[in-house]
Every structure is written in structure tokens, then in C-alpha cells.
What we know:
Elements: E1 3-8, H1 10-13, H2 16-33, E2 36-41, H3 50-66, E3 69-72, H4 75-85, E4 91-92, H5 105-112, E5 119-124, H6 133-139, E6 147-152, H7 163-178, E7 182-183, H8 192-198, E8 201-204, H9 214-222, E9 226-229, H10 239-247, E10 256-257
Parallel strand pairs: 1-2, 2-3, 3-4, 5-6, 5-8, 6-7, 8-9, 9-10
Helix pairs in contact: 2-3, 5-8
Amino acid sequence: PDxxxxxxxxxxxxxxxxxxxxxxxxxxxxVAKGVKIITIVHQVVIAKIIxxxxxxxxxxxxxxxxxxxxxxxxxxxxxxxxxxxxxxxxQWIPHAIPMVTPMGKAEARKKLGWHPTETYxxxxxxxxxxxxxxxxxxxxxxxxxxxxxxxxxxxNPNHRNNKNVTKFVTDVTNKAQSKGIAVTGVxxxxxxxxxxxxxxxxxxxxxxxxxxxGPLSLACAYGLPFILSRPxxxxxxxxxxxxxxxxxxxxxxxxxxxxx
Length: 260
């Protein structure tokens, strides 16, 4: 091929070694084969530990040099990537909202075995520290037995050999079960529509803003209400979401919550 589309998401690769191998492969394709590389950068990681910060800057700078074009899915990530690479310009393409066919709520709840009239909130993601599910469990408290939190997600299979990730997932699962909160594990793709059609709301408790959100786009597609942790306020820096809220007369700040 004379060009390739490279989708780069550091967390999904599974290890620094795999990331380094991918960069070396791209280097060979560019230098030896003259291939043009268009890179979609899903995450712009801002490391707080100095050695990791330097390492991530080197990796993003190399990726920038390798790429003919760089694309991000959140407007605010353009600035972060420019700061790391000095590259001008970075192209922003809004994250897609998929075309879906929602099920009826009653039908979806019947498939999941949920009560037809009780209230269900979703956490829908891989279980990862920056996604804040442990913090959500710390603050989750409901006096009403009819209010339910359902954690739909499990361990990223690319991290199945990472002991730290495995321990985190085990600790989260145990904490959830101690509070009577269901953890489904990773669900088959065909069941995604069941959960988003059956639920009453989506909670995104991320502790960092580093990427666009697939679950948020699914919530928009299914017409599911959502609330965001305060670090995700930068989603409103993207004009598409900001304008959508403005058209509906909704203050974006009203759907943000703190962990305290």
C-alpha cells in the first residue's frame, strides 16, 4: 500500500513494548517503503510523573514525525497534541454518533431480567483506573432499594497479563459486590443495545480527560441521559456538544458532578 490509516490508543495496546514495536514498524514503513501514514490519536496522555511525561512526549513527537496527517476526535485534544509535538496543524474530526435502532425499554429489561419500573444507571467501560469506577463506588449510596448501579465492563483483554490491572479489576469487583452492585464483565456486542435501551442514565466518572468517549457517543445515539465527572468538562470545548446543549437550552455545568 502507498498509505495506511494507523489508529493509536496507548492504553488499548496493552504494554509499552507493544507501543514501541508499533512505532518501529511505522518507522520502517515510512523510511524503507515510503508509505504515507495517517494517524488517528485516540488519547493524549498527560503524565504527571516526570520520566513518564518525557517518555510520552518522545513517543508523540516520533509519531508526529512519522505521520503525514494527525487526527483527533476532541477539539481540546488538538491543543494537547500540539503542545507535545509542536505540530501544526492537527485535524479535528468530531467523534461519530452511530446509527442505531433502540429497543423498547420493556423488551430490553425483559431480556436483562431487570425490574420493569425500577431505576437503573450504567457505568459502561473497561475497568481502568483513569475511568474512575473505583471513585464512583466510593461515593455511590442510595437509600432507595429501587435505584440500581450496573457496572457493564471488565478487564481489557490486552491487559490480561498485567498484574496491576488484574488486581484493580478484582478490587473493584469485590467492592461492588460488597455493596450489592452487579458487575457484568465484558458483554457481547449484540447486547450493547439491550443495556442502552433498558437503562435510565449513564454515569461517566473519569478522573482524567485524555480522549473522546465511545460510551458518551452511544448515549447520544440511544437518547440516554448522562452525567459527567468534572474533569470531563472539557468535552464542552468541542463546539458540536456545546452547540447541541445551547440549542436545547441546557447548561452543561448542570450535568457535572464532583467526587466529594
